[in-house]
Amino acid sequence: MQEYAHGATELLAVQIDAAINPGNSGGPVFSNEGLCLGIAFQSLRDNDTENIGYIIPTLVIEHFLTDFEMNKKYTGFPFAGFESQRMENPTIRRYFKMGPKYTGILVKRISPVSHAVEILKINDVIMNIDGVRVANDGTVPFRTDERIAASFLISQKYCGDKCCFHILRDGVEMDVDVSLTQPSALVPLQPQTEQSIQTVLPAYYIFSGFVFTVLTEQYLKSEYGDEFECAAPVRLLEKHLYGLKSKLSHQVVVLSQVLAHNSNVGYEYLQNIQLFKCNGTEIDNLEHFVSIVENSVDEFIRLDLDYNEIVVLDRKEGISVTQDVLVQNSIASPFSLEIMKKFSPKNNVNNNNV
After folding, report:
1. What DSSP string describes 20-66?
2. pLDDT exceeds 80 at position 185
3. Facing residues of 174 across strands?
4. How far is CA 216 from CA 109, 224, 247, 291, 353, in A?
5. What gap in Å lies between CA 42 and CA 29, rounded to an integer?
6. Could you tell me the end-to-end alpha-carbon distance of the chain, in angstroms, rounded to an integer?
7. CA torsion, points 132, 138, 142, 145, in degrees to nearest 10?
8. What DSSP letter does each residue of 303-338 carry, written as one string?
9. 247-302 residue pLDDT tens
10. Residue 235: half-sphere exposure toward Cβ, Cα within 13 Å
């Protein structure tokens, strides 16, 4: 199993001793007999290795094609809805009442937006997946005398399929069925809509020179480069690596930058910092934030940011400042297209309360 650089997921891959140069991704890979083995897609580049590439095997390609045939669109590889911990240490196995012949992995986190949250519990021990025994190191049998990560079994299924887990809960064995869902990352690879994994243009909102957007991996790359893991703020990286959605609509809204204006002097140092609250209301997503600001009749707009930073803006002044900032920076609209559809100027309550 290998992390797919362009898919933000871990799937079956084949390692080859040949470099895959930029621009060659997507090309077919053939054996000496002329059989297609897969598609070239990425290579390993560091100071200690060379000429190591990876190809997408036919098993993954067939899954993609079958998924498209069944659903008339790509729905992605399924997600079981939980994260697990290996149980190779004998003491932890004894603590969780595992007999000497028992093996398995420990459920440590469950996604609140998955079906698993209704079925599994933290500290359940997954012993079998669809009748296949899971070892303490989290592997299952693969081909002859080989082993592979247990997630391989999940990747062979499709979104909406059921998976049977044989678990140990408080010393009691039981079988449970979990419906597999689409992965729903708190920080997605690219901008997405709530209803679909299909990508859309990045969403943004500008008020009084403050530019807000949704945190995605592509945004981190645009700000900090391909090696953003070494340069981006730790708080944002934590959301990217470990964050879980509390509900499907949940997004990480960030203050991207402050466009200079006399009204926002003293705030120009703020950039790439998460927004938590607006006028005391916790922010669910960017659209929710826009709704609070655009429909407010309060004198002030208070923004609570990460690191306990607070921004206070004069609401009426902010409306006129926004127009000035747009003109100064040659920006056509304070809203991205998707936001504009729901918050057009004629529906802007603030325009009627100046």
Report:
1. --TT-TT-EEE-TTS-EEEEEEEE--SSS--S-EEEEEHHHHHHHHH
2. yes
3. 167
4. 22, 12, 17, 21, 34
5. 12
6. 58
7. -110
8. EEEGGG-EEEEEHHHHHHHHHHHHHHTT-S-SB-HH
9. 889 999 999 999 999 998 999 999 999 999 999 999 999 999 999 999 999 999 99
10. 13
Going by their DSSP bridges, the two strands 125-129 and 105-110 should be labelled as antiparallel
pTM attached to this predicted model: 0.80
Answer whether residue 160 shows pLDDT above 60.
yes
Q: Please enumerate in sequence order all residues whose Cβ is within 8 A of that of 204, keeping only pairs 6 or more positions apart, or say none.
A: 211, 212, 213, 256, 286, 335, 336, 339
Burial class (CB in 10 A: 0-12, 13-18, 19+), 184: buried
| Mean pLDDT value of segment 200-213 | 91
Name the strand (E) or helix (H) holding 165.
Answer: strand 162-169
Cα distance between residue 160 and residue 153, in whole Å? 15
pLDDT band of 224, cuts 50, 70, 90: very high
* C-beta separation of 291 from 279 below 8 A: no
Contacts of 293 (CB under 8 A, 6+ apart): 205, 207, 278, 301, 350
Amino acid identity, position 269? Y
pLDDT for res 280: 95
Coil/strand/helix, residue 234:
helix
145: amino acid identity, one letter? D
Which residues make beta-bridge pairs with 106? 85, 125
Sign of CA dihedral 253, 257, 261, 264: positive
DSSP secondary structure code for residue 229 in this structure: G
- Which tokens hold the place of 333? 């609209």
DSSP annotation of 272: S
Q: For residues 151 and 178, give the distance between their C-alpha atoms in angstroms, rounded to a whole number.
A: 14
Q: In the prediction, which pLDDT does 23 show?
A: 67
